[in-house]
Protein backbone atom coordinates (compact mmCIF):
# COMPACT_ATOMS: atom_id res chain seq x y z
CA UNK A 1 0.00 0.00 0.00
CA UNK A 2 1.21 3.52 -0.75
CA UNK A 3 1.15 4.98 2.73
CA UNK A 4 1.39 8.51 1.40
CA UNK A 5 -2.13 8.24 0.03
CA UNK A 6 -3.61 6.97 3.31
CA UNK A 7 -7.09 8.34 3.66
CA UNK A 8 -9.92 8.33 6.16
CA UNK A 9 -13.58 8.03 5.16
CA UNK A 10 -15.73 11.01 6.16
CA UNK A 11 -19.32 10.61 7.34
CA UNK A 12 -20.60 11.87 3.95
CA UNK A 13 -18.73 9.18 1.99
CA UNK A 14 -15.80 11.32 0.78
CA UNK A 15 -12.21 10.56 1.77
CA UNK A 16 -9.66 12.86 3.42
CA UNK A 17 -5.88 12.19 3.30
CA UNK A 18 -4.58 11.77 6.87
CA UNK A 19 -1.68 14.18 6.38
CA UNK A 20 -2.38 17.72 5.23
CA UNK A 21 -0.14 20.60 4.22
CA UNK A 22 -0.73 23.81 6.20
CA UNK A 23 -0.35 27.10 4.37
CA UNK A 24 -0.77 29.83 6.96
CA UNK A 25 2.16 32.21 7.40
CA UNK A 26 2.33 35.53 9.24
CA UNK A 27 1.81 38.63 7.07
CA UNK A 28 5.52 39.57 6.90
CA UNK A 29 6.24 36.35 4.97
CA UNK A 30 6.06 37.08 1.20
CA UNK A 31 3.01 35.40 -0.39
CA UNK A 32 5.26 33.91 -3.07
CA UNK A 33 6.61 31.53 -0.41
CA UNK A 34 3.18 29.92 -0.10
CA UNK A 35 3.20 29.37 -3.87
CA UNK A 36 6.64 27.74 -3.93
CA UNK A 37 6.12 25.68 -0.77
CA UNK A 38 2.73 24.35 -1.94
CA UNK A 39 4.17 23.34 -5.33
CA UNK A 40 7.01 21.53 -3.59
CA UNK A 41 4.65 19.86 -1.11
CA UNK A 42 2.61 18.45 -4.02
CA UNK A 43 5.80 17.28 -5.73
CA UNK A 44 6.92 15.29 -2.67
CA UNK A 45 3.51 13.68 -2.21
CA UNK A 46 1.18 15.88 -0.13
CA UNK A 47 -2.35 15.61 -1.52
CA UNK A 48 -4.29 17.43 1.19
CA UNK A 49 -3.88 21.20 1.37
CA UNK A 50 -5.31 23.36 4.13
CA UNK A 51 -5.88 27.06 3.54
CA UNK A 52 -8.42 29.80 4.35
CA UNK A 53 -9.71 33.13 3.10
CA UNK A 54 -8.22 34.93 6.11
CA UNK A 55 -4.69 33.67 5.29
CA UNK A 56 -4.90 35.95 2.23
CA UNK A 57 -2.89 33.57 0.06
CA UNK A 58 -5.56 31.51 -1.67
CA UNK A 59 -4.49 33.05 -4.99
CA UNK A 60 -0.94 31.73 -4.59
CA UNK A 61 -1.98 28.35 -3.18
CA UNK A 62 -4.51 27.98 -6.01
CA UNK A 63 -1.82 28.90 -8.52
CA UNK A 64 0.43 26.18 -7.08
CA UNK A 65 -2.34 23.60 -7.50
CA UNK A 66 -3.04 24.80 -11.07
CA UNK A 67 0.61 24.56 -12.00
CA UNK A 68 0.95 21.00 -10.63
CA UNK A 69 -2.19 19.99 -12.55
CA UNK A 70 -0.86 21.66 -15.71
CA UNK A 71 2.50 19.87 -15.55
CA UNK A 72 0.79 16.48 -15.05
CA UNK A 73 1.95 15.84 -11.45
CA UNK A 74 -1.64 15.53 -10.21
CA UNK A 75 -5.23 15.60 -11.39
CA UNK A 76 -7.72 17.89 -9.66
CA UNK A 77 -9.54 14.91 -8.16
CA UNK A 78 -6.35 13.73 -6.48
CA UNK A 79 -6.07 16.95 -4.47
CA UNK A 80 -8.09 17.48 -1.30
CA UNK A 81 -8.39 21.22 -0.76
CA UNK A 82 -9.86 22.83 2.38
CA UNK A 83 -10.97 26.46 2.67
CA UNK A 84 -12.62 28.22 5.57
CA UNK A 85 -15.42 30.72 6.07
CA UNK A 86 -14.05 33.67 8.02
CA UNK A 87 -15.81 35.29 11.01
CA UNK A 88 -16.92 38.36 9.03
CA UNK A 89 -19.01 36.15 6.71
CA UNK A 90 -21.02 34.09 9.18
CA UNK A 91 -24.34 35.80 8.38
CA UNK A 92 -26.19 33.22 6.24
CA UNK A 93 -26.54 35.44 3.15
CA UNK A 94 -22.76 36.06 3.09
CA UNK A 95 -21.73 32.39 3.11
CA UNK A 96 -22.10 31.52 -0.57
CA UNK A 97 -20.53 34.77 -1.84
CA UNK A 98 -17.57 34.17 0.51
CA UNK A 99 -17.04 30.67 -0.86
CA UNK A 100 -17.44 31.94 -4.43
CA UNK A 101 -14.72 34.55 -3.77
CA UNK A 102 -12.36 31.82 -2.53
CA UNK A 103 -13.13 29.72 -5.61
CA UNK A 104 -12.42 32.69 -7.85
CA UNK A 105 -9.08 33.38 -6.13
CA UNK A 106 -8.20 29.69 -6.34
CA UNK A 107 -9.40 29.31 -9.94
CA UNK A 108 -11.22 26.15 -8.87
CA UNK A 109 -14.79 24.97 -9.54
CA UNK A 110 -15.16 23.41 -6.10
CA UNK A 111 -13.33 22.91 -2.83
CA UNK A 112 -13.23 19.54 -1.12
CA UNK A 113 -14.01 20.86 2.33
CA UNK A 114 -15.42 24.14 3.58
CA UNK A 115 -15.27 24.90 7.29
CA UNK A 116 -16.73 27.48 9.63
CA UNK A 117 -13.35 28.85 10.73
CA UNK A 118 -14.17 30.06 14.25
CA UNK A 119 -17.53 30.26 16.04
CA UNK A 120 -17.34 33.98 16.87
CA UNK A 121 -18.98 36.38 14.43
CA UNK A 122 -17.30 39.67 13.53
CA UNK A 123 -18.75 42.78 11.96
CA UNK A 124 -19.57 41.96 8.32
CA UNK A 125 -17.77 43.99 5.68
CA UNK A 126 -14.57 44.22 3.66
CA UNK A 127 -12.25 44.31 6.70
CA UNK A 128 -11.20 40.80 7.74
CA UNK A 129 -10.18 42.05 11.20
CA UNK A 130 -12.61 44.94 11.86
CA UNK A 131 -11.42 47.06 14.78
CA UNK A 132 -12.85 50.09 16.57
CA UNK A 133 -10.93 53.31 17.23
CA UNK A 134 -9.35 51.71 20.33
CA UNK A 135 -8.04 48.77 18.33
CA UNK A 136 -10.63 46.39 19.79
CA UNK A 137 -12.14 43.79 17.44
CA UNK A 138 -15.76 44.55 16.52
CA UNK A 139 -17.79 41.41 17.12
CA UNK A 140 -21.29 40.51 15.97
CA UNK A 141 -23.88 37.88 16.80
CA UNK A 142 -25.21 35.09 14.62
CA UNK A 143 -27.11 31.84 15.01
CA UNK A 144 -24.54 29.28 13.86
CA UNK A 145 -27.33 26.84 12.98
CA UNK A 146 -28.44 29.29 10.26
CA UNK A 147 -24.83 29.62 9.08
CA UNK A 148 -24.67 25.83 8.93
CA UNK A 149 -27.80 25.69 6.76
CA UNK A 150 -26.09 28.07 4.32
CA UNK A 151 -23.11 25.71 4.18
CA UNK A 152 -25.46 22.80 3.49
CA UNK A 153 -26.78 24.75 0.49
CA UNK A 154 -23.22 25.27 -0.80
CA UNK A 155 -22.69 21.51 -0.66
CA UNK A 156 -25.94 20.92 -2.52
CA UNK A 157 -24.87 23.46 -5.14
CA UNK A 158 -21.62 21.51 -5.70
CA UNK A 159 -19.35 24.36 -4.56
CA UNK A 160 -17.88 22.12 -1.87
CA UNK A 161 -17.82 18.33 -1.56
CA UNK A 162 -17.92 18.30 2.24
CA UNK A 163 -18.69 20.72 5.07
CA UNK A 164 -17.35 20.91 8.58
CA UNK A 165 -16.35 23.19 11.43
CA UNK A 166 -13.22 24.41 13.14
CA UNK A 167 -12.56 25.47 16.73
CA UNK A 168 -15.96 24.27 17.98
CA UNK A 169 -16.31 22.87 21.49
CA UNK A 170 -18.46 19.77 22.07
CA UNK A 171 -21.52 21.82 23.06
CA UNK A 172 -21.34 23.85 19.85
CA UNK A 173 -21.01 20.62 17.88
CA UNK A 174 -24.01 19.19 19.75
CA UNK A 175 -26.07 22.23 18.81
CA UNK A 176 -25.49 21.54 15.12
CA UNK A 177 -25.99 17.79 15.52
CA UNK A 178 -29.31 18.35 17.33
CA UNK A 179 -30.53 21.04 14.94
CA UNK A 180 -34.08 20.53 13.66
CA UNK A 181 -33.97 19.40 10.04
CA UNK A 182 -30.21 18.81 9.94
CA UNK A 183 -29.34 17.72 6.41
CA UNK A 184 -25.60 17.03 6.74
CA UNK A 185 -23.51 16.45 9.85
CA UNK A 186 -20.15 18.24 10.07
CA UNK A 187 -17.56 15.82 8.68
CA UNK A 188 -14.81 17.19 10.90
CA UNK A 189 -13.82 19.58 13.64
CA UNK A 190 -10.42 21.15 12.98
CA UNK A 191 -8.81 22.16 16.29
CA UNK A 192 -5.46 22.82 17.90
CA UNK A 193 -4.07 19.44 18.93
CA UNK A 194 -0.59 18.27 19.95
CA UNK A 195 1.04 16.44 22.88
CA UNK A 196 0.62 19.47 25.19
CA UNK A 197 -3.11 19.75 24.27
CA UNK A 198 -4.05 16.24 23.27
CA UNK A 199 -7.83 16.89 23.22
CA UNK A 200 -8.62 13.35 24.48
CA UNK A 201 -12.17 14.25 25.53
CA UNK A 202 -13.02 16.14 22.35
CA UNK A 203 -11.48 13.32 20.30
CA UNK A 204 -13.66 10.73 22.06
CA UNK A 205 -16.72 12.93 21.54
CA UNK A 206 -15.94 13.38 17.84
CA UNK A 207 -15.25 9.67 17.31
CA UNK A 208 -18.57 8.76 18.96
CA UNK A 209 -20.37 10.96 16.38
CA UNK A 210 -18.31 9.83 13.37
CA UNK A 211 -16.72 13.27 13.11
CA UNK A 212 -13.03 13.38 12.19
CA UNK A 213 -10.78 15.46 14.41
CA UNK A 214 -8.27 17.40 12.34
CA UNK A 215 -5.21 18.66 14.25
CA UNK A 216 -3.62 22.04 13.64
CA UNK A 217 -0.48 23.42 15.30
CA UNK A 218 0.55 19.77 15.66
CA UNK A 219 4.14 20.94 16.24
CA UNK A 220 3.12 23.57 18.75
CA UNK A 221 2.28 26.42 16.32
CA UNK A 222 4.49 28.97 14.61
CA UNK A 223 4.60 31.03 17.84
CA UNK A 224 3.59 34.16 15.93
CA UNK A 225 4.21 37.22 18.11
CA UNK A 226 1.07 39.15 19.00
CA UNK A 227 -1.06 36.00 18.64
CA UNK A 228 0.74 33.37 20.73
CA UNK A 229 1.79 33.73 24.36
CA UNK A 230 5.60 33.60 24.13
CA UNK A 231 5.88 32.28 27.70
CA UNK A 232 4.46 28.89 26.72
CA UNK A 233 7.13 26.18 26.55
CA UNK A 234 8.39 25.07 23.12
CA UNK A 235 6.75 21.72 22.34
CA UNK A 236 9.58 20.31 20.22
CA UNK A 237 12.01 20.80 23.12
CA UNK A 238 10.00 18.59 25.46
CA UNK A 239 12.38 16.06 27.09
CA UNK A 240 9.97 13.09 26.77
CA UNK A 241 9.31 13.84 23.10
CA UNK A 242 13.05 14.26 22.46
CA UNK A 243 13.91 10.98 24.22
CA UNK A 244 11.29 9.06 22.22
CA UNK A 245 12.62 10.64 19.02
CA UNK A 246 16.17 9.62 19.86
CA UNK A 247 15.13 6.05 20.71
CA UNK A 248 13.25 5.73 17.39
CA UNK A 249 15.99 7.52 15.40
CA UNK A 250 13.47 10.15 14.32
CA UNK A 251 13.05 13.88 14.96
CA UNK A 252 10.73 15.23 17.69
CA UNK A 253 8.62 16.75 14.89
CA UNK A 254 8.05 13.38 13.24
CA UNK A 255 7.19 11.80 16.58
CA UNK A 256 4.61 14.53 17.25
CA UNK A 257 3.04 13.95 13.82
CA UNK A 258 3.12 10.16 14.04
CA UNK A 259 1.46 10.30 17.48
CA UNK A 260 -1.60 11.98 15.94
CA UNK A 261 -1.90 9.72 12.94
CA UNK A 262 -1.67 6.59 15.12
CA UNK A 263 -4.53 7.82 17.35
CA UNK A 264 -6.83 8.39 14.38
CA UNK A 265 -6.37 12.15 14.03
CA UNK A 266 -6.01 13.76 10.60
CA UNK A 267 -2.96 16.00 10.93
CA UNK A 268 -1.92 19.28 9.34
CA UNK A 269 1.67 20.37 9.16
CA UNK A 270 2.98 23.70 7.92
CA UNK A 271 6.49 24.15 6.62
CA UNK A 272 7.78 26.50 3.95
CA UNK A 273 11.24 24.88 4.12
CA UNK A 274 12.01 22.23 1.49
CA UNK A 275 14.10 20.04 3.79
CA UNK A 276 11.38 19.97 6.45
CA UNK A 277 8.53 19.52 3.94
CA UNK A 278 10.35 16.38 2.71
CA UNK A 279 11.05 15.25 6.25
CA UNK A 280 7.41 15.53 7.30
CA UNK A 281 6.12 13.08 4.72
CA UNK A 282 8.36 10.44 6.32
CA UNK A 283 5.78 10.20 9.10
CA UNK A 284 4.56 7.09 7.26
CA UNK A 285 7.92 5.31 7.45
CA UNK A 286 7.96 4.31 11.12
CA UNK A 287 5.68 3.35 13.99
CA UNK A 288 5.49 4.27 17.68
CA UNK A 289 5.09 1.46 20.24
CA UNK A 290 2.07 1.43 22.60
CA UNK A 291 4.50 2.43 25.40
CA UNK A 292 5.71 5.45 23.41
CA UNK A 293 2.10 6.46 22.67
CA UNK A 294 1.28 6.22 26.38
CA UNK A 295 4.32 8.25 27.36
CA UNK A 296 3.34 11.01 24.92
CA UNK A 297 -0.23 10.96 26.28
CA UNK A 298 1.38 11.57 29.67
CA UNK A 299 2.89 14.96 28.74
CA UNK A 300 -0.47 16.60 28.08
CA UNK A 301 -0.74 19.83 30.06
CA UNK A 302 -3.62 21.68 28.38
CA UNK A 303 -1.43 24.36 26.84
CA UNK A 304 -3.33 26.16 24.13
CA UNK A 305 -1.00 28.20 21.93
CA UNK A 306 -3.82 29.76 19.84
CA UNK A 307 -6.01 31.34 22.50
CA UNK A 308 -7.70 33.81 20.11
CA UNK A 309 -8.28 36.20 23.00
CA UNK A 310 -10.18 38.83 21.01
CA UNK A 311 -13.27 36.63 21.28
CA UNK A 312 -13.01 35.81 24.96
CA UNK A 313 -16.06 37.86 26.06
CA UNK A 314 -18.25 36.66 23.19
CA UNK A 315 -20.90 34.01 24.03
CA UNK A 316 -19.55 31.92 21.12
CA UNK A 317 -15.97 31.87 22.48
CA UNK A 318 -15.25 28.13 22.35
CA UNK A 319 -12.51 27.71 24.95
CA UNK A 320 -14.50 28.61 28.06
CA UNK A 321 -15.80 25.02 28.01
CA UNK A 322 -13.48 22.25 29.20
CA UNK A 323 -13.66 20.61 25.75
N1 LIG B 1 -8.44 26.32 11.92
C1 LIG B 1 -7.65 27.15 12.54
O1 LIG B 1 -8.10 28.03 13.29
C2 LIG B 1 -6.16 27.04 12.34
C3 LIG B 1 -5.30 27.68 13.25
C4 LIG B 1 -3.92 27.52 13.07
C5 LIG B 1 -3.43 26.75 12.00
N2 LIG B 1 -4.30 26.16 11.12
C6 LIG B 1 -3.81 25.36 9.97
O2 LIG B 1 -2.89 24.39 10.44
C7 LIG B 1 -1.63 24.57 9.80
C8 LIG B 1 -0.50 24.12 10.69
O3 LIG B 1 -0.47 24.78 11.97
P1 LIG B 1 0.58 25.93 12.34
O4 LIG B 1 0.77 26.79 11.14
O5 LIG B 1 0.14 26.55 13.60
O6 LIG B 1 1.98 25.25 12.60
P2 LIG B 1 2.62 23.81 12.83
O7 LIG B 1 2.18 22.86 11.80
O8 LIG B 1 2.50 23.45 14.27
O9 LIG B 1 4.15 24.18 12.52
C9 LIG B 1 4.88 25.06 13.32
C10 LIG B 1 6.26 25.31 12.77
O10 LIG B 1 7.02 24.12 12.74
C11 LIG B 1 8.03 24.25 11.74
N3 LIG B 1 8.29 22.89 11.21
C12 LIG B 1 7.64 22.23 10.23
N4 LIG B 1 8.16 21.01 10.05
C13 LIG B 1 9.15 20.88 10.94
C14 LIG B 1 10.08 19.86 11.24
N5 LIG B 1 10.07 18.71 10.58
N6 LIG B 1 11.00 20.08 12.24
C15 LIG B 1 11.02 21.24 12.91
N7 LIG B 1 10.19 22.26 12.66
C16 LIG B 1 9.25 22.08 11.69
C17 LIG B 1 7.49 25.18 10.69
O11 LIG B 1 8.47 26.14 10.34
P3 LIG B 1 9.17 26.15 8.84
O12 LIG B 1 8.14 26.67 7.90
O13 LIG B 1 10.32 27.07 9.03
O14 LIG B 1 9.57 24.73 8.57
C18 LIG B 1 6.30 25.87 11.36
O15 LIG B 1 6.44 27.25 11.41
C19 LIG B 1 -1.64 26.05 9.43
O16 LIG B 1 -0.66 26.38 8.48
C20 LIG B 1 -3.06 26.20 8.94
O17 LIG B 1 -3.20 25.66 7.64
C21 LIG B 1 -5.65 26.28 11.30
Structure characterization notes:
It is a single chain. By secondary structure, this protein is of the alpha/beta class. The protein contains ten helices and ten strands. The chain has helices spanning 32-44, 58-70, 92-106, 144-156, 170-177, 200-208, 239-247, 252-262, 274-280, 290-297, and strands at residues 7-9, 15-17, 19-22, 48-50, 80-85, 111-116, 160-166, 188-192, 212-216, 266-270. The strands form two sheets. It has an eight-stranded parallel β-barrel, surrounded by four helices. A two-stranded antiparallel ribbon has the order 1-2. The two termini are 36 Å apart. Residues 22-24, 50, 117, 166-167, 190, 216-222, 251, 253, 268-273, 276, 279-280, 306 line the site of NADP nicotinamide-adenine-dinucleotide phosphate.
**Form type:** globular
Mean pLDDT: 97
Sequence stretches where pLDDT stays below 50 over 5 or more residues: none
Helical content class: 25-40%
> How many β-strand runs?
10
**Biggest sheet layout:** 8 strands, parallel, barrel
Brief digest:
InterPro entries: AKR, AKR1C, Aldo/ket_reductase_CS, NAD(P)_OxRdtase_dom_sf, NADP_OxRdtase_dom. It holds the Pfam family Aldo_ket_red. With 323 residues, the protein is an alpha/beta fold.
List its salient traits.
323 residues, alpha/beta, eight-stranded parallel barrel, two-stranded antiparallel sheet, 10 helices, 33% helix, binds NADP nicotinamide-adenine-dinucleotide phosphate, NADP
Amino acid sequence: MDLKSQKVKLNDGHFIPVLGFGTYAPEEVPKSEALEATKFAIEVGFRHIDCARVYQNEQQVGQAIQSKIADGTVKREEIFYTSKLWCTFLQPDLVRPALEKSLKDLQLDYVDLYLIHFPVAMKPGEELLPKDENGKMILDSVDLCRTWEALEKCKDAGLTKSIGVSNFNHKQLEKILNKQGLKYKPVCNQVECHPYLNQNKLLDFCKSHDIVLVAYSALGSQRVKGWINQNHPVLLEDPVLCAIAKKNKQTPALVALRYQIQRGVVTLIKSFNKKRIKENIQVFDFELSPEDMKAIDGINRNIRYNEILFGVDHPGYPYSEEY
